[in-house]
Each structure stands twice: as structure tokens, then as C-alpha cells.
Amino acid sequence: MCGNEKAAPDGTAETEGSGPDVSSTADEGASQAAARLGLSSGQVIQEFGYDDDVDADLRAGIEAVTTTELVDEEYDDVTDGAVIWFRDGDGDLTDLLVDAMTVLDDGGPIWLLTPKAGRAGHVSHSDIEEAATTSGLHAMSTFPIAADWSATRLGTRGRGR
Questions:
Q1: Where are the domains of the chain?
Q2: What is this structure's pTM?
Q3: Fewer CB in 10 Å around end: N or C, the chain?
Q4: Strand pairing partners for 142?
């Protein structure tokens, strides 16, 4: 029986309510959002800037997509990608980006997650660009990823020919 069914006195299943299970719909939404980050099963993703305000569903979605737990800032082995939660006032973004690249495998994505415009802690795109450029990166794309968060993919600058 599914979570919304219960046994009737005659042994058949009765359904409580109708429509999709809200928790599984939220889980699917978080997994779909995490899938937009281009991550895949088996990848080791390092997380920076964890705090009480991070989007727990998105974190769970990332772990579901990668089938691994996020590793913390102290992890010192090679990683396949980085997720950085950053708010205005969190310190020096350039330093944090350099730290994220320390154990990152060549070509691994760095996702900078910042509060959306109008939310406390919002970081302007020009501040993101400045920190990225100073650390040898550039912003590739930005889109809403969760209710209060935007995602910006940062990549290394290719060599010109």
C-alpha cells in the first residue's frame, strides 16, 4: 500500500484524499532543480557556506541526484563540483571561490547560490562577476533554483587561440 492508502475492514485499500502526495511532489521538484545543475550519480560535491537558511529540499535533491552526501568545507580530496551558499555580508567571495577551486577536479562546475533579488543577503550580479573575474572564473548562467535562491554557474576561462 502507498502512503495515502489504508486497509478497509473488508481487506481492500481505501485512498485518503485525492491528488499527488505533497511530499513526493516536493521531493521531485527539488530533484528536478538539482538536475538543472548538471550533476550526475557518483559525483562528490563540496558544499560551502552552509547555514540555517539554505534550501533543505535543494540540498536533498543534490544528494539524490549524485547518490552521495555533500562533503563539507574541510574535505581535502578531489571533488567533482562545488556548491557555494553565499549571502551579502558573508565575507570575501573571491577568497571563497579560490578555496572552492583548491580540490576541484579540472572542469568541475562551481555553483554559486545566492538569495534572490529582494531577499535579505542578495548579492548583485556585478559583485559576483567581479569576484569571479578576480579568482580566474566567469559567470556562465544564472537562473532561479529554489524559492529564495538563484544559481550562478561559474567556469574557468578558456584559453584563446
A1: 21-156
A2: 0.81
A3: C
A4: 152
> CB-based contacts of 42: which residues, under 8 Å, 6+ apart?
66, 67, 68
152, with CB counted inside 10 A (0-12, 13-18, 19+), is buried
Whole-angstrom CA distances from 47 to 15, 19, 67 are: 40, 35, 15
Instruction: Tell me how far apart the alpha carbons of residues 53 and 99 are, in angstroms, rounded to a whole number.
Output: 22
SS3 79: strand
CATH architecture of 21-156: 3-Layer(aba) Sandwich (3.40)
Q: What is the largest CA-CA distance in the chain?
A: 75
For cell 550526475, the residue is: 40
Give 29-82 pLDDT, tens digit per residue.
767 888 899 999 999 999 999 999 999 999 999 999 999 999 999 999 999 999
- Work out the burial of residue 19: count CB atoms within 10 Å of its CB; fewer than 13 is exposed, 13-18 middle, 19 or more buried: exposed
Residue 69 grid coordinates: 552526501
